[in-house]
Design brief:
With about 170 residues, the chain is α/β, with parallel strands linked by helices. Helices cover about 40% and strands about 20% of the residues. Helix 2 links the parallel strand 2 and strand 3.
Length: about 170
């Protein structure tokens, strides 16, 4: 059985993430989508909320499950008998960082292979940070994320205030 993990911050999940999930679900027998808790980041949603949002949007894929971890993803991969790490890439700038991460993961777990899956071309500029900036500026983000995610994002930003949201480009 081919088992893979796809880890990320997913704060929140975007249509770009979903395009990678869809393609990975077709390639592997089981796909575990993992909210990786990074203490260096200050996410808008809790890990539990991000897992819940992911579960909602991956429901159409019977071979996809979701969880979170605050540890090394390769350690979780070993625990779950996953032999592959899926990494989504949007473009050349992502690729450099992702290759460095793949080398590090290979040092930690040489039996686990990293597989790069590009997001759909029309979604290559979508980022969670960009979604937050667009919502903060009152833009419609339905093109970039499912409607239920957009609604939660708008509500959360209204609750915490627009100045609490990181500012980067889509």
């Amino acid at each position: 059985m081919r088992v893979a993990l796809y880890a990320g911050t997913f704060d929140p999940v975007t249509r770009g993430h979903l395009s990678v999930i869809e393609r990975a679900a077709a390639l592997f027998d089981r796909l575990l989508v993992v909210v990786a808790v990074n203490p260096e980041k200050q996410p808008l949603f809790t890990p539990e909320e991000r897992v819940e949002m992911l579960r909602d949007v991956v429901a159409p894929f019977p071979n996809v499950a979701c969880t979170s971890t605050s540890g090394y993803v390769v350690h979780l991969a070993r625990e779950r008998a996953a032999r592959y790490l899926v990494r989504g890439v949007r473009g050349a700038t992502d690729t450099d960082a992702e290759i460095a991460l793949a080398h590090l993961n290979h040092e930690l777990a040489p039996e686990i292979e990293t597989v790069f899956i590009p997001a759909r071309a029309d979604l290559s500029e979508v980022s969670s940070s960009g979604l937050k900036e667009l919502v903060r500026n009152g833009a419609d983000v339905s093109r970039y994320c499912p409607s239920e995610i957009a609604a939660r994002l708008v509500q959360r930003i209204a609750t915490v205030g627009p100045n609490e949201v990181e500012s980067t480009h889509v």
